[in-house]
């Protein structure tokens, strides 16, 4: 998923604001340092997601049979391969 820099910044502000409201959370760093770390984490996750997406598309493209993007078969394979990759990386639990 592509997010603009502005959207990432907005999300980082929202997350930081919500953390400040939580009694269970105590900041040991200043608020902006925390917010910048959130930005860095989001950017890293989005880059990783782009790599997964590209790998899944490449895997579908390497099939013997041509599978047109947007078709039902493509969508099914995309979800399947994407889920497998998330499991491999430990992002979601294995069944």
Mean of the pLDDT scores?
91
Give helix and strand order, one letter per element, not per position. HHH
Gyration radius, to the nearest Å? 18 Å
Alpha-beta content class: mainly alpha
Shape: elongated
Determine the N-to-C terminus distance.
25 Å
Helix content: 55-70%
Q: Report the major sheet.
A: none
Q: Give the number of DSSP strands.
A: 0
Q: How many DSSP H or I helices?
A: 3
Which blocks of ≥5 consecutive residues have pLDDT under 50? none
Question: What fraction strand?
Answer: under 5%
**Overall tally of domains:** 1
Structure keywords:
single chain, 95 residues, mainly alpha, 68% helix, elongated
Task: Give structural notes.
The structure is a single chain. The chain has helices at residues 5-21, 31-61, 72-88. The protein has 95 residues and is an all-alpha fold. The protein has one domain. It starts with a helix and ends in a 7-residue tail after the last helix.
